[in-house]
């Protein structure tokens, strides 16, 4: 009997060595030798005591075999408490996972989670972690809802079937860069619907402030073009068939849809017949979020593109600037 036990332990020790598991070289063999004592010459009472001693030695051997089955040094398994903390952190970072666990806390997946959290706690050395793991697993579903942070998805506002075209304020000042006939100019547009007038102060690229061309337009359909600093250039008077644009001049325009203009999400409208006849007279683009003008283009043979860089509602031009000079009359 003792020999069989000796061979069994020696065989297990060899397997443990081959597999790289932890072992203690001599302690088990010493226990086996202690078990394999001589029964001869013992009384019945001594034999019972010896049997108890040997049973206790067998228990110690089994415990040591259980220790042999643990991972090798340096590769210790993660405690259940650490696993639970990691899961809680994931729940905070991934709200969708918390919601999923909350919705399925009674199904098989939740029970598997509880088993996973408590599996390592069965070992005596993780007794304290066992209490934490069981409590954490029991309350995980209850706390997952409070940990869940719903994602707010900003949905882009859709246009109505036929958006209403923008309406200009009655008084404003717009700073514009104009492109026409291959040249660029800075334009200060002053719109004053209340007094029935409109002004474009045009300065070509690299011209000085004194070279500003004034374009004064009035509701009586008369316009004056002149340069104040150079009377010799004279003054040009033009009568137009229509007066200045009304604030709702885009009413009835055809909607063009959305388009990115100069980096802004814009909505566009087309109106009138231009030159050539296949072109619309004007394409007007306004920022979708607040209807501020971004660009409009007139198709009058050579397109004239107006890019708005500033728009101030209520700003007016000085009153003396509205008066055309005497050489215009």
Characterization of the model:
- With 329 residues, this protein is α+β, with helices and mostly antiparallel strands.
- The chain folds into three domains: 2-68; 80-147, no CATH class; 171-328, outer membrane lipoprotein receptor (LolB), chain A, CATH 2.50.20.30.
- 33% of the residues lie in helices and 26% in strands.
- The chain has seven helices and eleven strands.
- The protein has an eleven-stranded antiparallel beta sheet, with no helix packed on it.
- A hairpin with a 2-residue loop joins strand 1 and strand 2.
- The chain is rod-shaped, with a radius of gyration of 46 Å.
Shape: rod-shaped
Q: How much is the average pLDDT?
A: 74
The portion of residues assigned to helices is 25-40%
What value does the Rg take, in angstroms? 46 Å
What class would the helix/strand composition place it in? alpha+beta
User: Helix tally?
Assistant: 7
Quickly count the domains: 3
Q: According to CATH, what is the class of the largest domain? A: Mainly Beta
Query: What is the CATH topology descriptor of the largest domain?
Result: outer membrane lipoprotein receptor (LolB), chain A
* CATH architecture type of the largest domain: Clam
Low-confidence stretches: 1-6, 12-25, 144-154
Number of strands: 11
- Tell me the fraction of residues in β-strands, as a range: 25-35%
Q: Looking at the chains present, what oligomeric state does this protein adopt?
A: single chain
Task: Give the N-to-C terminal Cα separation.
Answer: 136 Å
Describe the secondary-structure layout.
Blueprint: H1 2-19, H2 27-35, H3 44-68, H4 80-93, H5 95-103, H6 108-119, H7 127-147, E1 171-180, E2 183-192, E3 197-204, E4 213-218, E5 222-226, E6 235-239, E7 254-261, E8 264-273, E9 280-287, E10 293-298, E11 304-313
Antiparallel strand pairs: 1-2, 1-11, 2-3, 3-4, 4-5, 5-6, 7-8, 8-9, 9-10, 10-11
């Amino acid at each position: 009997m003792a020999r069989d036990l000796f061979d069994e332990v020696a065989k297990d020790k060899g397997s443990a060595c081959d597999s790289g598991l932890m072992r203690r070289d001599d302690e088990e063999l010493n226990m086996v030798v202690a078990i394999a004592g001589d029964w001869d010459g013992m009384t019945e009472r001594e034999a019972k005591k010896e049997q108890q001693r040997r049973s206790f030695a067998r228990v110690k051997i089994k415990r040591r075999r259980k220790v042999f089955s643990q991972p090798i040094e340096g590769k210790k398994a993660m405690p259940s408490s650490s696993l639970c903390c990691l899961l809680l952190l994931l729940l905070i970072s991934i709200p969708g996972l918390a919601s999923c666990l909350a919705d399925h806390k009674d199904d098989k997946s939740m029970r598997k989670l509880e088993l996973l959290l408590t599996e390592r706690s069965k070992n005596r050395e993780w007794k304290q972690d066992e209490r934490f793991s069981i409590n954490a697993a029991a309350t995980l579903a209850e706390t997952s809802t409070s940990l869940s942070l719903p994602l707010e998805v900003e949905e882009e506002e859709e246009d109505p079937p036929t958006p209403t075209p923008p309406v200009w304020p009655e008084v404003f000042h717009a700073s514009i860069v104009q492109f026409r006939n291959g040249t660029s100019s800075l334009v200060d547009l002053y719109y004053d619907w209340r007094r029935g007038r409109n002004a474009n102060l045009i300065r070509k690229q690299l011209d000085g402030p004194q070279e500003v061309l004034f374009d004064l337009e009035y509701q009586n359909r008369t316009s004056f073009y002149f340069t104040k600093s150079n009377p010799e250039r004279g003054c040009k008077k033009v009568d137009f068939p229509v007066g200045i644009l009304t604030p709702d001049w885009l009413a009835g325009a055809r909607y063009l849809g959305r388009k990115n203009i100069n980096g802004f999400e814009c909505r566009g409208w087309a109106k009138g017949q231009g030159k050539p006849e296949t072109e619309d007279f004007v394409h007007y683009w306004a920022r979708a979020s607040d209807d501020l003008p971004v660009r409009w283009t007139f198709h009058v043979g050579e397109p004239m593109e107006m890019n708005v860089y500033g728009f101030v509602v209520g700003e007016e031009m000085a009153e003396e600037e509205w008066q055309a000079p005497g050489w215009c009359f």
